[in-house]
Amino acid sequence: MNRRTTWALVSLALLLGGWLVMTERRDEVRVAGTDGSVRFRRLDPREVVSVEILRSNVAIRLERTNSAWFLRAPIHYPVQSTGVERLLEVLGGLVPRSHLSGAEVNAQRGALAAFGLERPDVLTIRTREGMNILRLGGRTPLGSQVYFQQVGQDGVFTADASLLEALPASPEDWRDRRLFDADSLAFDRVEVLGDTEFEAALTTNGTWSLIRPLVARANDDQIRRLLTDAADTRVLAFISDTLTVSADDHGLNQPTAQMVLKWGGQEVLRLQFGRESTNSHGQIAVRRSDFGNVVRITNSILESLKRPLAAYRDRRLMPSIAGLQRLEVKAGGDSFTLEKQGTNWWVVAPRRFPADGSWVRETFQRFMRLRIEDFLDDLGTDPARYGLAPPAREYAFHVGGSNTAPVLLTRLSLGAPLGDGRRLSVRRSDEPGIYGIAAGDLQTLPVSASQFRDWNLNPSNIVQIEIRQQGRVRVLKRNAVGRWEGVAAAQGVLADPAIDEGLHRIGLAPIGRFPVPNEAALKQFAFDQLDHAVTLTQAEGGNFRTLQLRFGGRNAVNQFVWAAFDSGEPAILTQFPLGLYQEYIGPWFSAPPTTPNERQP
Q: For the CA atoms of the chain, what is the radius of gyration?
């Protein structure tokens, strides 16, 4: 044998010896006794595959299935894992305090009986590598420890009495008290039978949809809440674990309600809810089809099972319009198209101009906030009855990617107000039903392209202000050095910063985006009588753009203003803050004439 081989064998022996030492430290401990120390084999809870407990002639056997525990004897039933895990935690930390040899045990009167080990509880733990059997006796005189034996080892050990406390008194202690485990049960359909009947199925995007008695969008939150409430309902008592129990005794021959869980068309679990118990007020019996047992629960779940079908329907008219690229609007005789180009929105028909992106987003949010008040006609066979042939308004929503042409998502048709005047009929082109929404929601929806115009008011680019009131005209012009010419205050020259601040405030003024009325409608606000307007000329590159503000009658808080762009085309009717007018715009005109820029008609 050469020197290199000798060193290799020595190294291998050292490694093997070190592994044995580490293994012994991990799996065994030394326990002190009067005749010296003895070895005690410890348990790794992670390796446990089954646990058997024999107590007072009752055998309890549990098995680990994947990551869950299941009761196999004396009945077949799911286990509430916390109790098993607690026992394994105690066993994993079990270290005997002391050891009595076999001779010392036999020397006691009654031998094993003196330690409560004549008829012990037996705990059998199977791991992937073998079996560990513990025979559990009585408590020590002070009560804080327990006597036990490890099969295969001589004598009796003592350990902390928490081991006894971790054992179940009966199989009932560890049975799963949930009505069913929704997390481990595979199902994609739920059916409710009784006063209310419907069936819902999971869609490909993971949400629930109604498939019976009609195909319709479901209220996903309500379906999930129903399933969660049912699954989390606590079992108060296990009435019977066999089918021999009389169904008549618990009202299960004609159940009050039923819930059926399915995978595809195959039934996975059926829950039958009986009548209220005569001996237990507010409690009902439930039969599970998978184990055939009958349990008692509170009757609170019946309230959800008996809710009308409408409670489980989606009342959002437009749940989502993500990826929207185009909106086509027809309102009366007017129509326009809003389109996203790049990252910006434009009105592209009947005229092209930039749209206010923030207002476009707010408009879409308003559509998504529309709520269905009533399900008027699920078949939609008579649209004329609801003023939908033809509709009063239409909104066509088109979606698409950055490189694909927009395709129609749905067309929203609005009909006539219903008899009470509080509701309005509406229909989606991709759904057969006709719905009712609050008539007031109509006022929040756009009817003209001008409502989307981008103000785009840059105060620093304003080069001229023209004020007209009762035939009098004053013009303020910004000169080459940026100073304003053509205005003076009553007590002297009106400072340029005051004019610039007024323009800045106008740019920040809130925009109401109300539909533009015709000239006849504007008379109620005295626009024609006041004849009061401010026209702002804004330089945009080499071009000039004008924005006209026409002021109307005053209400208690604000003054009304009609804004028009470019060639006098009406844009929006909104409210202008009265304080802003009084502080900034009023002085532009009320100052005494001091320059030739003010003229009389």
A: 42
For the stretch 353-403, pLDDT in tens is: 889 898 899 999 999 999 999 999 999 999 999 999 999 999 999 998 667
User: Rounded to 5 degrees, what angle do the CA atoms 421, 426, 431 make?
Assistant: 155
434-439, long-range: CB < 8 A, 24+ apart: 434/376, 434/377, 434/380, 434/383, 434/386, 434/388, 435/317, 435/372, 435/373, 435/374, 435/375, 435/376, 436/372, 436/373, 436/374, 436/375, 436/376, 437/317, 437/370, 437/371, 437/372, 437/373, 438/371, 438/373
Report the candidate in 251, 399, 382 with the shortest Cα–Cα distance to residue 325.
399
Main-chain phi, psi angles of 532, to 5 degrees: -125, 120
Q: Are 376 and 385 in contact (CB under 8 A)?
A: no
Q: 118-145 as b/e, with b when 16 or more CB fall inside 10 Å?
A: eebbbbbbbeeeeebebbbbbebeeeeb
CATH code that applies to domain 32-174: 2.60.40
| pLDDT, position 557 | 57
Please report, for residues 380, 384, 413, 434, 576, the alpha-carbon distance to residue 391 in angstroms, rounded to integers and kept in the order given. 14, 9, 6, 12, 34
Q: Which two tokens stand for residue 357?
A: 């992106």
CA atoms of 256 and 276, how far apart (whole Å):
10
3-state secondary structure of 366: helix
* C-beta of residue 209 within 8 angstroms of C-beta of residue 203: yes
DSSP 517: P
Contact 597, 475 (CB under 8 A): yes
**3-class DSSP assignment, residue 179:** coil
**Which are the contacts of 456, defined by CB distance < 8 A and separation ≥ 6?**
354
d(CA 271, CA 260): 6
Q: Which of 409, 520, 394, 400 is nearest to 446 (CA)?
A: 394
Closest residue by Cα to residue 180 from 268, 281, 82:
268
Quote the CA–CA distance of 45 and 305 in Å, as a whole number. 42
Contact 409, 399 (CB under 8 A): yes
CB atoms within 10 A of CB 242: 10
Please state, in angstroms and as integers, the Cα–Cα distance from residue 263 to each residue in 160, 185, 228, following that order.
48, 10, 18
pLDDT by residue (tens digit) across 5-45? Answer: 545 444 444 454 444 444 444 568 888 777 777 888 888 88
d(CA 114, CA 117): 7
- Contact predicate 439/421, CB 8 Å: yes
Asked if residue 41 lies in contact with residue 132, where contact means CB atoms within 8 angstroms, the answer is yes
**Angle 543-548-554 from CA coordinates, rounded to 5°:** 165
Cα–Cα distances (Å) from 115 to 138, 414, 434, 588, in that order, read: 6, 86, 80, 106
CA distance 305 to 47: 43
Contact 490, 591 (CB under 8 A): yes
Locate 502 and state its tokens: 């007024």
**Backbone phi, then psi, for 238, in 5-degree steps?**
-95, 105
Across the strands, what pairs with 399? 324, 407
* Tens digits of residue pLDDT in 313-348: 999 999 888 889 999 999 887 899 999 998 999 999
